[in-house]
Amino acid sequence: MKKVLAIVGSPRKGKNTDFLLDKVLEGMDKENIHIEKIYLRDLNIAPCTSCYYCADTGKCCIKDDMQKLYKAFDESDCTIIASPLYFNTVSSLSKIMIDRCQMFWSSKYQLNNPSIDRDKKRIGVFLCVGGAKEHQGQFDAAMPVADLFLKAVNARCKYTLFCANTDEVPVWERQDILHKAFTMGKDIWKEL
After folding, report:
1. What is the CATH number of the domain that holds 163?
2. Cα Rg for the chain, rounded, in angstroms?
3. How many Å apart are CA 86 and CA 48, to the nearest integer?
4. How far is CA 115 from the centre of its chain?
5. For the chain, what is the domain count?
6. Which end of the chain is less crowded, N or C, counting CB atoms within 10 A of the terminal residue's CB?
7. At what angle do helices 175-191 and 16-26 cross, to 10 degrees?
8. Which domain covers residue 89, as residue numbers?
9. pLDDT > 90? residue 16
10. Average pLDDT, the chain
């Protein structure tokens, strides 16, 4: 059975980011996959302290809820990160989790002893929702952060979906975006 790890980086449940992610998940055939949806706001994740423990060991010395996520990243066939756009990048909840994935980079590139299965092909997905009116470059700063995170967990960022102007028109009123999200879910499921 294929596994999808869906991470919500929004501090708000049931709002735009969460709703968009649910629509993507709705497009997937639930009988053939296991979906694990995680709200970062419900986890206890400390920020990276730059202690360099992972550079020496390939593991993180901070014992908190990231330990569960490390295992989930390794077991997933698809990792989805869904975040609101805050100050032109991912939310602080998302960024704290991303920073704590330094151990994957260190284990792969400094120690040449990966803490994650490098041979497993994983699909990476980035969903991002911004409240401001759509403008050129609106999601440009968030995309490299998400892409590098997905590379750290050995997922290739294959699907992205951005939704702007949610301060005026929420996601659940945007049939065009909801259709894209549902179709994306179907496409991801077929690829799994």
Report:
1. 3.40.50.360
2. 16
3. 20
4. 19
5. 1
6. N
7. 50
8. 2-191
9. yes
10. 96
